[in-house]
Amino acid sequence: MSKLNIEYHRLSIKSVLFNLDNKVTGSDFDFSLQHRTATNFFDKNGMFCRGENKLPVNRNDSPTSLVLPKEVFTQIEEFDPLRLTLFVNKIKYKSWEFSWPDNPGENFIEIPLRSVDPAPNPDPAPNPDPAPNPDPDPNPDPTPTSEKPSKFWMVFVIAGGLAIAAYLFQNEIVANFKKLMAENNSCSSSEQLEEAVLDETLWPEYVKKCKVFFSRISDEQFQVKLTRLSESSSLNSAQVWFNIGKLYDVNFDQHLLRILKPEVKPEVDLAIGAYSKAKEANVTGAAALLRAACQNTNTPYLKLVTKKECKGF
């Protein structure tokens, strides 16, 4: 069975290897990648494009392996239904369908591919001789009829109307889906949010690209994103807790998460809880920020709910 082998580095795609189930000979290899729901194709940068883009691939030492450009796959979300088509010497060789899996933090994943059409036959059998036409009716009816033209035009009009309606409906769906994906695809990715949170040099570019997206999602949706980050099996989960603490800490109004959702109110008990988790994982600076946050528990209720975390401070 043909398959894709994906290598990750810090939740970013490092390489994509296309392993074929048999040897394919040829001097020129290309492929195309299509989103089966939107029916759009991806370009070399992983964005939707008009029409099928044939993208070049590279051979490696193995006669059954191809190296695909990783940039094509950067905007794909988990569970997206996709179709990959391989071209050999500019002629279609074969197509496969698959769904992009959710990666909770693995460095390597393998995606099995399901063939949707047979490999081309290089030597197709010749078509058999057509059957001889039957003898014509020796006594045809000379009377002309208007029924056939009438039915023909009726069927033509109905079929044309249905075709136009289907075309407009499909285009509207594709346009709306393309617009949604173009705006939200990268900004809705939890992996890219985590990468931006953990690298301050990425903040200006990420805010410029995604601030409008985060202004449109609800506070509940934002909380779901934070929960996914904090519960991730990634090795960076403790650092994520450290940054979530800064979101709720009144002293960090210029933090990335606060810039994306400025309407989120500081809450000292949530900041303390997040800092405490980061401190337990020995994140640098977590103990100092936890001590400062514990000094802001100025009500009996806050002192009670943070008693365990603030013990010793």
Report what the structure shows:
- The chain has 313 residues and is of the alpha+beta class.
- The protein has 2 domains: 113 residues, Sandwich (Immunoglobulin-like), CATH 2.60.40; 116 residues, no CATH class.
- Helices cover 38% and strands 19% of the residues.
- It is built from 9 helices and 12 strands.
- Strands 7-8-2-1-11 form a 5-stranded antiparallel sheet, with no helix packed on it. Strands 6-3-9-10-12 form a 5-stranded antiparallel sheet, with no helix packed on it.
- The radius of gyration is 29 Å and the shape is elongated.
- About 2% of the residues have low confidence.
Query: Biggest sheet, strands in spatial order?
Result: 7-8-2-1-11
Number of domains: 2
Q: Tell me the distance between the termini.
A: 59 Å
Low-confidence stretches: 144-148
SSE order, as H and E? Answer: EEEEEEEEEEEEHHHHHHHHH
Note the overall shape. Answer: elongated
What Rg is obtained from the alpha carbons, in whole angstroms?
A: 29 Å
Chain oligomer state: single chain
Q: Work out the strand percent.
A: 15-25%
Chart the SSEs and their pairings.
Elements: E1 3-9, E2 12-19, E3 29-35, E4 41-42, E5 48-49, E6 55-56, E7 58-59, E8 65-68, E9 81-88, E10 91-99, E11 108-112, E12 114-115, H1 147-184, H2 190-198, H3 203-216, H4 219-230, H5 237-248, H6 256-260, H7 268-280, H8 286-294, H9 300-305
Antiparallel strand pairs: 1-2, 1-11, 2-8, 3-6, 3-9, 4-5, 7-8, 9-10, 10-12
Helix pairs in contact: 5-7, 7-8
